[in-house]
């Protein structure tokens, strides 16, 4: 019985990975660089997109987004207000986006008018890690208010992501969060990981992160 469960799980991931590869090819054909945004509910995923889009616009780069949520259109409404193309992807009861849902979403986006695509995953530190979507980079965002042991509790998440963001640094003193510990834990699980500290209320730290995204962006274009 256990053996069958493991086989099913492996098949499920294989199918997802194949579609993710196809998504990556589709995006590359349209010269779109995609970023998968992962993190807990309320860590600041939507706020990060809200902050990055105007900077990208200043640099002549056009953004787009997929708003992944279990239910509703709260994030979709915030993102569409930025004046960018957005698709709302509701998972129903799934705790993560999968490549198939992203494939559908891509078909509803004007890819030739997008340079940088943000895929906001469902708020969750566990489920999304196993499901690649076809993005070139994965950004994981944690906030000081989640507790400074949050990184240590999620090794798979940090091993599987390329860029780490420690957000809500303004609130660290109020909750007694040790930001250095969070950064150390990220580097322990993922040596060499690029780590940025942000306050998305004020915008502090966002230009450095933008430089990293644009550096990635210019590698291929
Ligand atoms: N004080 C503070 N609040 C923040 C910061 N970043 C986000 N928030 C707030 O945290 C809440 C959740 O942010 P949101 O972007 O919706 O998180 P998401 O669920 O990951 O998309 C919102 O009320 C934001 O205004 C920050 O750096 N400092
Ligand atoms: Mg959000």
Name a few traits of the molecule.
42% helix, 18% strand, binds magnesium ion, globular, Rossmann fold, binds guanosine-5'-diphosphate, 8 helices, 7-stranded parallel beta sheet, 221 residues, alpha/beta
- The fold-level CATH name is Rossmann fold
Q: Structurally, how many domains make up the residues?
A: 1
β-strand percent reads 15-25%
How many beta strands in the DSSP annotation?
7
Q: Give the biggest sheet.
A: 7 strands, parallel
Q: What is the CATH level 1 assignment?
A: Alpha Beta
CATH superfamily: P-loop containing nucleotide triphosphate hydrolases
* Alpha-carbon distance between the two ends: 49 Å
Mean pLDDT: 95
Strand order of the largest sheet: 3-2-4-1-5-6-7
Could you say which small molecules are bound to this protein? Answer: guanosine-5'-diphosphate, magnesium ion
Total helices: the number is 8
Reading the helices and strands in chain order gives HEHEHEHEEHEHHEH
Q: Which architecture would the CATH scheme give at its second level? A: 3-Layer(aba) Sandwich
Please estimate the helix content. 40-55%
Radius of gyration: 17 Å
Question: Which shape, going by the Cα principal axes?
Answer: globular
- Helix-strand category: alpha/beta
